[in-house]
Design a protein that fits this description.
It is a single chain. With about 160 residues, the protein is an alpha/beta fold. The chain has two domains: about 60 residues, no CATH class; about 90 residues, Winged helix-like DNA-binding domain superfamily/Winged helix DNA-binding domain (Arc Repressor Mutant, subunit A, Orthogonal Bundle). Helices cover about 40% and strands about 25% of the residues. It is elongated.
Length: about 160
Amino acid sequence: MHWPAERDLLERLRAEGAPRLLLVGQPGPPPDLVGCQEDWVRLPADDRDLEARVRGLAARSLRHRPGPHVAGDGRLRYGAHWIPLSPIEHRLATVLAGCFGEVVDSDVLAGAARPDEGINEAALRVHLTRLRRRLRSVGLEIQNVRGRGYLMEHATG
């Protein structure tokens, strides 16, 4: 995107967590970069320079993708996407997203699903199966780590 002409687009892409390559015209000052998903190049730029910047930005973006955010309004947001959640799914997703990429004990999830009474392992599996289906649509998955619990992570395929 052209800097500073497309400042509004930059703000929207920042909010979505998308990688951003800023094209800076002569003689303007370079922008202040925010995070590893942003880079800039001065125009006119050689095609090889542009390709190198895009490759570097893509590699950094993969290493530093932000995890999901579970909002208080009953929705899970991931990048530019969001999905609605049932109350139990919301509580499960809140715990899993809060420990994104880490194993969460099954007992912790069962207690989070219904704080007043908890649920048994079979009911927990049913709720996690439903949550898995929803998460696939936004590029997330829940893995069962046998004997330890569950973890939420970026989908691999």
